[in-house]
Amino acid sequence: MKPLELMNAAPTAMRNFWLKLALGLALAASLAQTASAQTLKVTLLGTGNPRPSMERFGPSVLVEAGQQKLLFDCGRGALQRLYQVKVEQIDGLFLTHLHSDHIVGIPDLWLTSWIMGRKIPLRVSGPVGTRRMMSRLEQAYSFDIHMRRDVDENLPPHGVEIQAKDVHQSIVYQNGDLKVTAFEVDHGLLKPAFGYRIDYAGHSVVLFRRHPLFREPDPVCARNRCVDS
What we know:
This protein is an alpha/beta fold.
């Protein structure tokens, strides 16, 4: 090969190298994005009880299924924990039962996430009494809602709305590959109380509170075999 041909070949080889590198990086990014979209991630935001503690915030679990983010229970400090893991909005709140330590963080989650930009209603599902409780919260904060929505800040009206429903033992949420199923659990004299099974992209996780009086074989574990955790 003549010297001039060598000089012409070098830039061509270099261009081919960079083209292959770019295609490889694009493919890797695409595969990573696909893998991320199929991920089921569980974060324990709080595992505390009614007693105040700076080490353990109130009961609350975040489940991320691809791009969807679901919250299970909303105890004390749940919103702070969400912001700590850089989650500003959720797609739905599911309540296991209506003990105060599992729901005391709802007003903060509901109103502050509206102030921070939520433009759609907050969806809340839980045992019988959930709809009534949420309607009373709307009444309790009606003055603040009016001021922020109609007078002062002109916040989006749909963002402060609540879509609450009482659910029973059944599939309570389904969106694409994501499915949430409620099942009854023993929580002593408090009835009903639910656990939840989340299925997504071939993975499953079960969330429930084991009652101290349970003895093996545990009926909840028996009915939810073949899950990731």
